[in-house]
Write a structure and sequence with these properties.
The chain is mainly α. It is 63% helix and 6% strand.
């Protein structure tokens, strides 16, 4: 489509591609609900009584999200939402599969569907109410302070609680929440806004070592402060994954803002020093490194990792088939080790397909950052996409023994409400940014020949 501005001139308007999104969403629903049905058929021989309600709920939720995007964000990226739906659907099917072999039968899939519904509702709220990400830049320090408070909130007496060796939860009555998931979103916004203001100063070069321009000593304050915060998380909360995620996020956004290779080099050195300090002084870090390097040396201590390795080996290349493996033997298979359950029943081919979907989601987020011309949107989109990529790399690397275990969740697949809701917020923000990047620049829609003439007007 073209819009006339002057005689013979045209302006190219990007296509909205909402029809493509709807077709991909239908395909994603077929994959997710088909996997759910196959689990029922292979485990019990018939569709379960909850299949129809689950199917209706999924279809309604997807349609509501799509209609909200079509109404408020018509130029948003058409691939982000389908990627999320297929990951969410496969995770729901796998949680349902593990529910069926629990004794008694668990209802984790039902809870996950409720959390998914809340996540979709908040996504719709972001799409309808926010619409423009740029006003968030005004609240740099307020958002950053709230993010840090949420990050350290589990240390507060009375509400902070320790689970599985890490103090990363707050308990309010029967409900628990992982505030680091919300802090991830808030700190990404705060980092982007801060670096837009300070990038010119932080880009100044200091000493040149081995062809790399290192930052000036006077500019090291922000990275040292974030490094100390990540060490506090590692020491006080015993959470290696969150420590890695937030420090890595800040260093990457520093690099994107300044285009100086010295920042990531310095960040790697600081993280290596912190990791070595943690290994020497904290037993939980040594346990995770031991499970990474020598899992078969202690069957009782490293049983979770050993079981996941056997499950992946049992699944082989093509997997046992949904409902035909034994993923329930691995502790926390619904949450931390859901990737091992996917690899067992869908095989390495299925696990690689899931990783490719994650990669496509990250690639579209980074493409939005590349296309964005205003610096805040560019940094925010790149930061959110990188945080997502780093989280997936850390958890899948831990499950497959490429890295030590970190305890992070697998986005949109692991059971848990805080992770599900906050990741849907990330999707909403990326959709808002991509809409502003792809939408046409407002132009005059009508050519007025009479405006080309000059008239002399008497001024009283």
């Amino acid at each position: 489509m073209s819009v006339g501005t002057t005689p013979g001139a045209t302006a190219v308007v990007p296509r909205r591609r909402r029809g493509i999104e709807l077709a991909l969403l239908a395909f994603a629903l077929v994959l997710g609900l088909g996997a759910y049905a196959q689990v029922d058929l292979n485990v019990t021989g018939a569709l379960g009584p909850d299949f129809v309600p689950v199917g209706v709920g999924c279809v309604v939720g997807v349609l509501v999200a799509h209609l909200a995007v079509r109404w408020r964000l018509p130029y948003a990226d058409p691939l982000l939402l389908p990627c999320v739906v297929v990951l969410n659907g496969l995770g729901l099917a796998m949680i349902h599969r593990i529910d069926l072999i629990s004794d008694p039968v668990a209802h984790g899939a039902r809870q996950q569907l409720i959390w998914t519904g809340l996540g979709v509702a908040i996504f719709v709220g972001v799409a309808v109410l926010l619409r423009d990400h740029r006003p968030l830049q005004r609240y740099t320090y307020t958002i950053g302070l709230v993010g840090v408070v949420l990050l350290l909130l589990p240390l507060a007496p009375g509400i902070g609680t320790t689970k599985f060796g890490a103090r990363i939860w707050i308990q309010l009555g029967p409900y628990s929440f992982q505030p680091a998931e919300a802090a991830k979103v808030l700190l990404a916004v705060a980092f982007a806004s801060y670096l837009v203001e300070k990038r010119d100063v932080l880009a100044l070069a200091g000493y040149r070592v081995l062809g790399i321009d290192l930052p000036r000593a006077r500019d090291l304050g922000p990275i040292v402060l974030v490094w100390l915060l990540s060490l506090a998380i590692l020491v006080l909360q015993r959470d290696l994954g969150t420590s890695l995620l937030f420090f890595g996020l800040f260093v990457m956004m520093l690099y994107v803002a300044t285009e100086r290779a010295g920042w990531p080099v310095l960040g790697v050195l600081l993280f290596a020093a912190g990791a070595y300090f943690g290994y020497l002084n904290f037993g939980h870090v040594r346990v995770r490194v031991g499970a990474w390097l020598h899992p078969f040396s202690d069957f009782d201590a490293y049983y979770q990792v050993i079981s996941a390795q056997f499950g992946l080996a049992y699944g082989g290349l093509l997997g046992t088939g949904l409902g035909l493996g034994r993923p329930g033997l691995t502790p926390l298979a619904r949450s931390d080790f859901i990737a091992a359950a996917i690899g067992e029943e869908l095989g390495m081919a299925g696990l690689m397909a899931v990783i490719m979907v994650y990669g496509l989601f990250v690639a579209r987020g980074l493409r939005t950052a590349l296309q964005c011309r205003e610096p805040f949107g560019k940094l925010l989109s790149a930061g959110l996409a990188f945080a997502f990529a780093l989280q997936v790399f850390a958890i899948l690397g831990g499950v497959t023994r490429l890295l030590p275990l970190t305890g992070l969740t697998t986005p949109f697949m692991s059971q848990g409400g805080s992770s599900m809701i906050c990741n849907w917020i990330i999707v909403g923000l990326l959709m808002v940014i991509s809409h502003h990047v792809r939408r046409p620049v407002p132009t005059a829609t009508e050519y007025r020949p009479d405006l080309d003439t000059t008239q002399v007007v008497r001024v009283a």
